[in-house]
Specification:
α9 packs antiparallel against α10. The chain has a single domain, classed as Spore Coat Polysaccharide Biosynthesis Protein SpsA, Chain A. 44% of the residues lie in helices and 19% in strands. The chain has an eight-stranded mixed β-sheet, with helices on both faces. It is α/β, with parallel strands linked by helices and 231 residues long. The longest helix is centred in the middle third of the chain and has 17 residues. α1 links the parallel β1 and β2. The chain is built from ten helices and eight strands.
Length: 231
Amino acid sequence: MQHPTISAIVPVRNEQPATLDNLCALNNQAGLIEVIVIDVSDDSSTINKLNQLQDQSASVRVVRAHTMGRSFQMNQGETHARGTILWFIHADTRVPQQAGQLILDSVSAARPWGRFDVQFNTTSMLMKMVAFTMNLRSGLTGICTGDQAIFVARDVFCQSGAFPEIAIMEDIALSRKLRRKAGPIRLRVPVVTSARRWESHGYLWTIFQMGLMRFLYWIGVSPKTLNKLYR
């Protein structure tokens, strides 16, 4: 059996990933895509749904995580991956149908990693501005967030030391390490992520909170302390 070129790694906790159905559809594209779900759920409905998806699609594997936390889960996903490119996707993110081919066409030895632009699943003009700002900031700084579906050549990911196993800001920490090798590829076809946190906590409060978290991390506040504030 031909090995996949891209391993899509999806960390999950007590939710039924919206991304899995369209990820499974990508499996027929050139290069082959496998989907590795790293699950820490204790909710029976989520576990049952994931098991059903695994039974229905040969491209999906569900793995129980050793440790809770996105950084731990995504690093564990790498140990199960067979692809030469790792693609880290949040469970509430939907990817465009041409995403796999776009990654294959863009990754090279000189440019081994990158991310997609992001948009939110809402018509709110404020959230459209938030997405625009996220994409612009990432383009200017080379720092990417997990919502932007980061992809990276597996050998470069391992050479960089993988995700720092911290409670929060693991995506920013990885971006800083990868940026030393090359700036990220920017794929302008957007992934679509959920605005549920913003809606439930309030748009303005969430904007303030996330901006504050990034500032505190930048000045050296520990991820452990930031996670307590975030929760």
